[in-house]
Amino acid sequence: MRLAVISFTGRGGQLNRFLCEKLNIHGHRTDGFEKRAGKAEAPLQPVEGSLREWTGRAFSEYDGLIFVGACGIAVRSIAPFVKDKFQDPAVVVIDEGAKFCISLLSGHVGCANELCSLVAGLAGAVPVISTATDVNGCFAVDVFARKNGLEILSRCLAKELSAAVLEGKQIPFFSTQPVEGELPKELILCETEEELRKHPGLKLAVSERRISVNSGGQEDILYLIPRTVTAGMGCRRGTEEAVLLRKLKNAFSDAGIFLQALEQVTTIELKQDEKGLHDLAEGLGVPFVWYTREQLLALPGEFSGSAFVKETVGIDCVCERAALKGSMERAEKGEADAREEGRLILNKQAGDGVTVAAAVRKTKLYFNRKENER
């Protein structure tokens, strides 16, 4: 994490410098700041301007803020900038006597609870953590999602699930990805989608695509989405980004694949300079990868061939082969015991001069995963 520590007195400055040194040793990038009369003592940086101005900048530049001083100072400083727990940085407060360390803001998603425990341990303080799931020792869905790189599809359902857990209810759980570690007592493991569907009420699923359900809708499933899908694409020369995005969204939607599951866009080397594909990948925040004709032709299996495409680029099907190749390549870069060759989950979809296919790979997830294990 990129951290900022701020203090306001000479004694607080001593603790500030100590924390900066120790947090850097623990792998964090930590900057120390001092807001008080007189010159800041090196290596602490003086705060120019108001504390509110500094806090506003720090909110956007750092993953976590540590206030060495009174809790009231921290509350008044951060108040104008607080948005929600999915955007706010972690905020921790420790008194200058290092007696108590408080997780003040963004305890789960922002890692403030873990940061609070670390800072308290370094300084010999008592950690004060007040989030309900931590106090009651319960499964926290937002922590599980963050530590495994999963995106929470519905914040509303996430709140409902946390409330249900705190009420002592067990939540049916299904995952398309392998999960290691002891199953939390708050979850009921379902081996198949069919088993999950049999359970009434709120359910939890790790999946790259929607789970088909009986009539009644899917509003009772909280999805945690892994980035494990590769989109293979081909297009006519000069196809605009907007057209490509529309075709990609439509193809994914028809197949029930979440766009949030996309981890890369792939194609053939001949399309490596296609501006529309570059812009598409950049706009979606994913890599744009291309492969040679020989690499794609080397893939085993049957593909949706096109005589026109084969005559034009020397290969029967660009999108399916590119999707599968990209997915297999990402799987090979995964953990040794979690490797699995990619498989197609969306065959070629064509229209408006655009072709789209998709493949998915496996990635191992963990219960009780530590932050540095990712």
From TrEMBL:
Residues 230-359 form the CobE/GbiG C-terminal domain. The keyword Hydrolase applies. GO terms for molecular function: hydrolase activity. The keyword Hydrolase applies. InterPro entries: CbiG_hydrolase, CbiG_mid, CbiG_N, CobE/GbiG_C, CobE/GbiG_C_sf, GbiG_N_sf. Keywords: Hydrolase. Residues 139-214 form the Cobalamin biosynthesis central region domain. One of its GO terms (biological process) is cobalamin biosynthetic process. Residues 54-134 form the Cobalamin synthesis G N-terminal domain. Pfam families: CbiG_C, CbiG_mid, CbiG_N. This is Cobalt-precorrin 5A hydrolase.
